[in-house]
Here is the input.
Amino acid sequence: MTCGHVKRLLSAYIDGELSGLEMLRIRDHLGQCAACNGEVEALRAVKSLLLEQPAVEPSADFESRLVGAVFASTPPLPKKVAWFTISLTASAAAAIATFVLLQVGHSRDNAMAKAEMQRRPDSFSVQQDQAMMAGSDPLSGQAPIVMAGYGKR
Amino acid sequence: MASAKRLLSLFLLAIAGNAFAVQADSAREIIRRIVEMRRTPPCTLVQTQVYDMSDGVAQFVVEFDGNGRSRRTAIKPLRIQGTISIDNGKYWATILPDEKRVMLQESAMANRIPANFRMDLIDRNYKLSVSRSKEIAGRKSVTVVALPKFPEMPRREYSLDAETDVVLRVVLFEQGAKERVLLDTIAVRYGSKPPDEFFEIPFSGGYKVDKCPTLRKIQSRSSAGKAVGFAPRTPKSLPFGFAVAEAHLCGEKDAPFIAVRISDGFAQGTVYQWDGKKRAEGFPFTHEFDVQDLAGVRYLIFGELPKDVKAKLIEFFSKFDREP
Here is the structure.
């Protein structure tokens, strides 16, 4: 696992939202990489600062004021403006290009995920076994649950 | 006068000793009831628990029907939200509603380590006491403290509902580390029995059922050895007061592996053993943790155990080559 991979997953790692395998891999990497370790500590500090902030309650009329403000600030559409047509065409082209790029990236990600899953079908046997062991022990404290979307199903 | 004082102090000491013995007995009795998995009354709990062999914490709604059946629905994190697991005493099913898929295994209750075996190990390895009761999720609780005789092992605290014995909180205190809450309870509701349909496994209704291979209890090392291609290692005694509870032959027929269950009474672990030459590289994980290799046979340990303890246990397994 490279530093790039790890940094992308650090936020989810801190929130405990990764699979066991990913958590283990990242923990292992953090044990060896001072840079990523610094990053995780900084991220933890930011998250804990954010958590300390009191939740802001919107006033009762917030929604109606917001909607009113949005309508009031929307300018009426000009009837015939050449630059508008140009910018609309450019925007559409950019949107199509972004969509195509995202699709390419997405299908590459899917292919990588599929290859990864095929490479480690047995990880799932171990995961199922461990979940079963957690379920067999009322004192384990661990949840007997098998992760969806992880390994052979 | 001096002898009267001595007599008085002996008397006080005897009272204190007796009180400690009574407290330890009561702590032991509480733990025995839990280990024996006596029936949980009908109830619904919202709990947070560590899951999936990691530091990740998930939140669940857990329901018991009072007849030994349980159902657990994941609320968060998002990646497991909606996943349901049902144990009806015969089967344990993981249901993925979005995919209309059921993963079916033998009930976890059928594979628990015998209570007497665990209690003997607990007596040997831990000193038990009951600490002050506190309130958890609005319920009065009793906390049993398990102090390990081996300082390498963590101290454990189990908080149970004082009336029903339902486990409400489990905390580990490892030396030199922060306390680790494995399980905590946010809300509890007793009284209303969840409907029967809650505990029914959807074998129909468009669900695809994947049946997982059954665990086969290893009766003889030689027959298990034939299946996996090496003699499984099941040492009788282990460091830190651990012992082998039982061993299973697991996995598909064409890719079997051994799972040796170990325990010190409270902590449980599994030592997986497989033929590194026969299996695809990277089994069970592409990145290996706590793995030892000896003459092609690989050993991997899993369990809620301190890192150093894991390392010593796995080393012991890999170096052990004589069965008594």
About this structure: Chain B touches chain A through 70 residues (CB under 8 Å). The mean pLDDT of chain B is 84. Helices of chain B lie at 2-35, 115-125, 221-228, 307-319.
